[in-house]
Amino acid sequence: MDEPTSQDSATDKALRLIDYLLALAALRSTITREIEDYQGVLWLHEIPYENGCFSQAWGPNEELGSDVWVEIKKHDEPILQDVPKLCEQ
Predict the structure, then answer these.
(1) Does the pLDDT of residue 79 top 70, yes or no?
(2) Are 83 and 89 in contact (CB under 8 A)?
(3) Is this model's pTM higher than 0.85 or not?
(4) Do residues 56 and 66 lie in contact, with contact meaning Cβ atoms separated by under 8 Å?
(5) Strand partners, 72
(6) 54 in Cβ contact with 69 (< 8 Å)
């Protein structure tokens, strides 16, 4: 019978460490089975059909690759004018 080599022993230790870390991570996380339990849900039909918004569910876009499913561009805020003198007080 072959005796275990140090390579087999190191591999076995590494596998047991990975199993332990996976089990430890599972203890700290909760399984979410209901979509209502998520903190935030983005429905594709709620994305507005406006300039700067895109969803792959609407159909392909030549400007974006097929790996982009949702894109929402942030617009710069408009520069506000000074407050009129009448309203300063």
Answers:
(1) yes
(2) no
(3) no
(4) yes
(5) 53
(6) no
